[in-house]
Write a structure and sequence with these properties.
The protein contains 19 helices and two strands. It has 479 residues and is mainly alpha-helical. A two-stranded antiparallel sheet has the order 1-2.
Length: 479
């Protein structure tokens, strides 16, 4: 059955550089530094430097397994298409459900973070106005043609990297006298005095550092809009992963080096702003907060675009009832954007904003564990079956080292999350329940349909419906 038509086919117009800009914007180095990075500083003190150095290694493993899977299956559904093809439709639907549940709270979390930093710049302004104003503005940009959206996010991304560079230079150019000793023997201020950091806090900090640095997988969702995706996807994804990891880890390490003798920075609710203010004055802290608000807004734009491609793919794969699927899978002829899917993601993300920050984090914290385990298993089995790593596809080096390390890291992070009764354990249980419910739904409903259910993956050249020009190999049709 051919379920795609020019009206439901994305336009293949993104260059690798365009896709890299969108992916780095999704990853948002400044968000990762000021969000999870600040939490790691408060949890692990000076131990955060070593944890984020370790995070670069985790990000490299994450990038290699995702690059191999994404190069073989560069489709708008992201992880679930490759996982479902290699490990079977049940695993694919479980992966689909995981992302369907996570993407909307992630947008809400970003919108709330925009409000947090915007109200620092303009005290007394209403947080709800910033939250919903940011969502509406991000939605408007996400509805533009994909290359126009990539240009907008690229402009914001340049501001973001300036903010990253400011933190790196401030820290490494003003090192504390005791910095390296403090990093080697992690310590944290307690009641105004330094105290050693416990093993449990370091383990939880390692999970959060990995969550902050790992990323780049969002590139896969733009695969049907990327020129020559099977050849380019692996390189785009790995470049985004490694560049993002360095841009996230280096500022954290630099601030630890610069603030190792100042307990007030580690005790602050906003440690990076506190450090910049201590080095360059309060106006510098305010300027950096403004840059953070813009950077998180940029991430919100890219994440809405990412989520729209996922929901478009869910609809095209007949996850929803036929009328809903037909609407969500429709692509605007001139812009090439799945507009109904984009607006649906924006509206549902706005509804998630009524949830507290803690509840939103419960949805997000277990993602690294489940996603890394599923993708690593898919790459391990896929290479053995000849489904990944083929001609013109990116291959992870020293196979099976990367997928085995990915599975080991997923187990280690699961143990650390389980030890965290506040956020980590509830997240593992909640997302585990989502996966269980998805498997039940697959076996009881989807698998009983005539012909069953599976992700659609047949790739062939096609024509850009807006321009009428042939597209290089790697397009999408269904048979």
């Amino acid at each position: 059955m051919n379920s795609t038509t020019p009206e439901t086919r994305l336009h293949r117009r993104l260059t690798p550089f365009d896709a890299l800009l969108l992916t780095l914007s999704c990853l948002s180095p400044v968000f990762s530094v000021y969000g999870p990075g600040a939490e790691v500083l408060r949890q692990s003190g000076t131990g955060a430097a070593a944890l984020f150095a370790l995070g670069i290694g985790v990000a490299a493993v994450w990038g290699m397994v995702y690059a191999e899977l994404g190069s073989a299956y560069p489709y708008a559904g992201g992880d679930y298409v490759g996982v479902g093809t290699v490990l079977g439709p049940a695993a694919g639907f479980a992966c689909l459900a995981l992302w369907a549940v996570i993407i909307l709270p992630m947008d809400a979390y970003l919108a709330k973070l925009v409000a947090t930093y915007a109200t620092e710049v303009l005290p007394g302004s209403a947080p709800w106005a910033w939250i919903y104003g940011a969502l509406l503005a991000a939605l408007a940009v996400a509805l533009l043609a994909v290359r126009a959206s990539a240009l907008v996010t690229g402009i914001f991304l340049s501001i973001e990297f300036v903010a990253v560079l400011a933190l790196v230079l401030a820290g490494f150019l003003h090192p504390a006298a005791s910095a390296w000793m403090a990093i080697a023997h992690p310590r944290l201020p307690v009641a105004g005095r330094w105290a050693p950091v416990g093993a449990a806090a370091l383990a939880l900090g390692a999970v959060n550092a990995a969550f902050a640095t790992a990323g780049g997988n969002q590139a896969i969702a733009f695969g049907e809009e990327l020129i020559d995706p099977h050849r380019n996807m692996g390189r785009v994804l790995l470049a985004a992963c490694l560049l993002g990891a360095l841009a996230i880890a280096l500022p954290v390490i630099a601030v630890v080096v610069g603030a190792a003798g100042d307990p007030a920075v580690f005790a602050s609710a906003a440690p990076f702003s506190a450090y910049i203010s201590s080095v360059a004055g309060p106006w510098a802290g305010i300027a950096l907060s403004a840059a953070v608000a813009l950077a998180v807004f940029n991430a919100l734009i890219a994440q809405i675009m990412f989520g729209a491609r996922l929901w478009y793919s869910f609809a095209r794969d007949r996850v929803f009832p036929a009328p809903i699927s037909a609407a969500l899978a429709k692509v605007h002829g001139r812009s090439g954007v799945p507009r109904i899917a984009t607006m649906t993601v924006g509206v549902l993300s706005g509804a998630c904003c009524v949830l507290s920050q803690r509840v939103l984090l419960v949805f997000l914290s277990g993602l690294v564990v489940y996603a890394l385990a599923l993708v690593s298993a898919a790459v391990l089995v896929g290479r053995l079956k000849g489904l990944t790593g083929g001609a013109d596809r990116w291959r992870s080096p020293l196979f099976p080292l990367a997928p085995l390390l990915g599975l080991a890291l997923a187990c280690a992070f699961a143990a650390a999350d389980w030890a965290d009764a506040s956020i980590g354990r509830p997240s593992l249980l909640a997302l585990g329940a989502v996966l269980g419910a998805a498997l039940l739904w697959y076996h009881c409903v989807l698998n009983r349909r005539p012909g069953g259910w599976a992700p659609q993956v047949t790739a062939a050249p096609h024509t850009d419906p807006a321009q009428g020009t042939p597209i290089r190999a790697g397009g999408w049709t269904d048979s």
